[in-house]
Structure prediction request, 563 residues.
Amino acid sequence: MARNDIVDVVSGYVRLGKRSGSNMFGLCPFHSEKTPSFSVSPDKQIYHCFGCGKGGGVINFIMEIENLSFPEAVAFLARRANMALPEQENDRESKKRSRMLALNRDAARFFYEQLSSPAGQRARAYMDKRGIGKATATNFGLGAAPDEWGALDRAMRAKGYTSEELFEAGLIKKGRNGGWYDTFRDRLMFPVIDVRGNVIGFSGRLLGEDGPKYLNSPDTLVFNKGSNLFALNLAKKSKSGYILLSEGNIDVVSLHQAGFDSAVASLGTSLTAEQARLISRFTGEVIIAYDNDGAGQKAAQRAIGILEKLDLKVRVLQMSGAKDPDEYIQLRGPEAFRQLIEGSENQVEYRLGVIAAKYDLGVDAQKVDYLRECEDLLARLPNAAEREVYCRRVASQTGISPEVLIGEVKSRRSRLLRRTAATERSSPERQSQPVERQLRYDDPASAVAEEGLIRLLYLDGSLAAVAGLPDAAEFSSPALGHIYGVVRRRLGEHRSVSADALGGELSAEEVSLLVRILQKPETLSNSKRAMEDYINRIRQRRRAQSDSGDLMQLLEERRKELK
Prediction:
């Protein structure tokens, strides 16, 4: 992977800027944060987030951010560098993923062909009713699922796919009598395409009366509805400078057809943190265009909370006289909608307006409640100038002194910050634990020595030949024992122990843990003595645990005797 410099690769997903020594920092793409804690080391060719703990080499980064297996990530980077694909060991999951993507592509072609056939008449009539043109349908790859129980199953089995493969892709279901039937029937079909151009799933709009209005593919090996967005494969190419976030597929199609080519929608769920991070890879601004009803306003408030954690600029559309973007464009035209976008409120103005709508500011008691709720919102704004501007606006609405409100907001913010700091403070034992919850240390004191031994071996491979090294089974932590075993074996075979090389044998969580271990200081001036100290501490803790176990067993036996 020498041709894929980690800074170049990561810069395609993260804006790296701030430097600390030789390392570069940016906002982590794997969790929500406003202060950069994601570090990339050009010298070591590794990344590490001091917030969420994820780390590794360039291959692990691609595995995590593109949701790929190790062989797929290697192939991805090989293509990026215009290299021939390296020889890889047989990887069943990778082949299964490739097979499922091929099946989804063929299923999308089947639905697309059905749209222009007699079986697609109802879908075409619905498209005419909603004003969806042929060019737009082609652009989105829209299709039709016939009103039959086994049309797709038969067509795909004729291409060599098995019913089991169709079932695992969520395209068919198992009937009570043991047979199979198509998941999507009598529906206008929207293929869900990821940012790499792969068909990963489907969303179907009901044309008849039987069934849910919208039906999405279930989660599969290649599809997770909470981690993908409909039409992002098209919106990522937009020159608008923002992503237009709407609620439904039809809204997105109508918006693109009207010239708003940055529209996307979540897939049958509220906006998730994963979807927000995906959006942040392509833009710094989001305009929320949810339905103009109570549910839409509630969803907008929730989306704002998720998006603002990623330091994204957020605005919200207020559509009067129409329930959603599609209806607004149908009634007033694209130009009116464009003006709506230009006049959209930023998220603070929107949220203050939602709060104000709940109270009668002519009643003193309600005015006080309004001020309290505004104080809580304004105290959470990170920018001091922004807090003062909105404090003065709210004060002018209620007729109180701006200084009084500014002082109240300042006090509330101080309390919030103290509470956050108290929550984040933890004991030394807790701080020694891995960020990954599934890799908890049962014996933190021993784990510190186990980490140290791994760190020494990694930094000075010659130590692997020293006699008296413990076996992996002597480690108190199974995760550390596994990492240690892999590192020691590869050093004995004179093979690389770089983060990328280990990515094929360690899990993503284990690679992150290894990188975290390597971030801690270690001196090599007297490495053999340090290694002996680590080994002694590991074995002393093991003996102490064994003695404690023997004592407990003896006490239990004595208790039984006394009975």
Remarks:
- The first helix runs from residue 6 to 11.
- The two ends are 68 Å apart (CA to CA).
- The CA atoms of residues 189 and 529 lie 67 Å apart.
